[in-house]
Write a structure and sequence with these properties.
6 strands, four-stranded antiparallel beta sheet, alpha+beta
Length: 109
Amino acid sequence: MKHRPNTLILLALLALCGGAQADTLLVERAQQKPAVAQPARGLSMGEVEARFGTPQEKLDPRGGQKRQWPAINRWVYPDFVVYFEKNKVIDVVARQASPGEVGPKPPIR
């Protein structure tokens, strides 16, 4: 009889948990091996454009007001966004694949 209150509390907590949702997180997809090739760090803008074609959009550069704040350029492709410092790739970020996927906010324009 001593364990009955603990069991009731455990059952109540399990009932409150509810069902799991089936949202796909962008983080989970990004951790998996990419389905499409992505630019590697250090590639130049010309090399990226030669390998992956013309981007959907070339966003205006941000930064560059001071020497310690280099200008960052962003190119938007269907599956990823490429970030350049000066002329070299510094990062590639996966884009949200579907409306049901939870991911980053759209880029600031």
